[in-house]
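Reading a protein record of the kind used here takes little practice once its layout is understood. Each number in the token line that follows is a code from a learned vocabulary of backbone shapes. One such record is shown here in full, so that the layout can be seen directly:
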Amino acid sequence: MPDTCPSGARLQEATEFLSGHPKIEAIDIVLLDSNGIGRGKIIRRHELEALYRNGRHLPISILGLDVVGEDVDDTGLIWDTGDGDLRAWPVPGSLVAQHGTMPPRAELLLSQYHLDGTPMLSDPRHALRNQIDAMAALNLHPAAAFELEFFLLDPERDSAGQVQPACDVLDGRKSHKTEVYSVDHLIGMQPLFSDIYAAAALAGITAETLISEYAPGQYELTLHYRTDIMQAADDLVRLKRIVRAQARRHGVVACFMAKPLADYAGSGMHLHVSLCDENGNNTLAEEADAGLTETLRHAIGGMLSTISESMLVFAPHANSWRRFANQSYAPVAPTWGVNNRSVAVRVPAGSRSARRVEHRMSGVDANPYLVGATVLAGMRKGITEQIAPGAETTGNGYDADSTQALPRDWNAAIAAAQASTFLKDALGEEMHRTFTAVKAAEYARVARTIPDVDYDLYLHTI
């Protein structure tokens, strides 16, 4: 029997981990679906090596679930297949101990394959892998990092039934102020963030700068730049799980909705990307005073030209669309600029040798694997077709004219995604079918649900 599996993981990883962690009793095995939600099981210690040898049978329907975990028949992954089992295999290097679990547990990421060992292409990881490989064919290798914005909320609603910022875990102090960039404000959550940093380190994730963001109870954690964009996406999904778990241990709620507070800014998931050649040289870096490279300009042009038909990936839920508002630090048009936070695609200030591009459209509720795949596909299209980015936006990007309009709402974004040949190429046909079917089913669920605002406006009035 070979000591490697279709994913490239080796049995030795499991054997050495168990030897080095004798107190671990169980392992969370996690497969990410189209919404980026972790699905899977908790296995016992003695089952781990068998998983590396033989994989683990999981139903194909796991990748055809909506946001609440119900089957979506139109994905073709449920009854069309008899809901048969596929085989999930470990993601190499993803077996890590978890911080603060009792009894001690570990976590392992999985990727889904057919029984013959070929990739199951409704797995979001495979969509990103295909775009990484397509970039490699151009001798371009994307390095990247995601930014994680989120809210810490009180488990109890306020008197009006609305969510409210969490009290400080240090001493119970409460603030309803924006507190943007306040260092003193961060102190009240320091015990929680100390546990988050410890858990991230145990998982091999370098979580870096902590920021009090632009809304009450909103924070940002930045992640260390990775030479592999797949690793950057893994970091993001694992850090979300860490933040949620550690917040719960401290009695508060970590919220990754794009827009939980109506009157304040929402939470983004900005993606920073640079493109290296086979020797690790940054192809986006320009010579002194030479201006932006043609590779960078064309990459921006490709991203901008495909944003409208890709918006469902960047804003995949009903709540996602509440984030887009003027002067909210969420872009509202396909614009670009240098050192400008009001645009969709930003070239950050800083060293020319470390030049990168920041894609600012996605909410924190988006799936980072699909975001990465879509952004890379847009960059590749721009580079191969030499698409010009158009005029740079200077000053207030919310006042900028754009020749390309974004979809007006979630339903329009679903229709645009369903019709998009670009998005089908970016995600692959199977992932595109699965993702758009799930989103259409979720839209139908929301559309038939009567919200509280209807009762507030009409119950006693009409």
Observations:
- The radius of gyration is 22 Å.
